[in-house]
Amino acid sequence: MLLLHPSPLQFNSSHPCKDVAAHVMIKSFFFHRKLVQFRCRSSNVKDKNQNGMHIASEHDNFVARFEIYTTRRLTLLLLVLQGFQPSPSYGKTKGKNPYDERRLLEQNKRIQKDNNAPSGFPNFIREGFEVKVVTSENYIKRDSGLIYQDIEVGKGDSPQAGQQVTFHYIGYNESGRRIDSTYLQGSPAKIRMGTNALVPGFEEGIRDMRPGGKRRIIIPPELGPPVGPSTFFSSKQFEVFDIELLSVEDCKRRTIGFYSDVVCS
After folding, report:
1. What is the pLDDT of residues 14-56, one digit of tens each?
2. What per-residue confidence (pLDDT) applies to 235?
């Protein structure tokens, strides 16, 4: 324990140096005991053959000098320690820089242009794990996170659960690169609604379309397809689909002997 003010010393008349050395070792950790004993022993050797009064006077002078020396050393040590006290650190909060957003937006536009993205394609400003979708005012965003735009509204009734929908689609990633197309495959897709055959965002986007309608949907990662080597998708990204709903058909189960299937017409 470090004390700023030494307490009064208690002396033993027969062994004054021993008491001083022990007292110093308790009060301060940086004074060497041998140094104190040497200085005290030197004073006693000089006065060994003189009277006891002279020895006590010499010893008192040494103790007074030592107390002054100790106080100065303690004060100096305190000042040094105060100078090395750690200052509080404050983490820097990285704010969004408008210049960086413009730069990332222009970069995304250049990439989409190189990938021959269709006109009116949405832009994506990706910074780390945060993605900002930039679209025109014609797009509508739902509470689920799905964003869509009706390019052409069809006629008739929207598909219901259990009905079969026939549609064409073209899928794109954030960079505007085409990842899939039923037009290139040569035949439309046919799926029964409500059977979990489509990713959640796709089924939500086609659910309120009408036959003959065309729609562009932007699916967020939480409503998107699974990722992995066996899919078209290698990471959690926004996906864009241009959909053309061709027809909606009713379905019913048919049983012939031991054979049963579902027929849609």
Report:
1. 444 444 444 444 344 444 444 444 444 444 444 444 444 554 5
2. 65
Read off the pTM: 0.60
SS3 track for the chain: CCCCCCCCCCCCCCCHHHHHHHHHHHHCCCCCHHHHHHHHHHHHHHCCCCCHHHHHHHHHHHHHHHHHHHHHHHHHHHHHHHHCCCCCCCCCCCCCCHHHHHHHHHHHHHHHHHCCCCCCCCEEEEECCEEEEECCCCCEECCCCCEEEEEECCCCCCCCCCCEEEEEEEEECCCCCEEEEHHHHCCCEEEECCCCCCCHHHHHHHHCCCCCCEEEEEECHHHCCCCCCCCCCCCCCCEEEEEEEEEEECEEEEEECCEEEEEEC
**Rounded mean pLDDT of 210-215?**
97
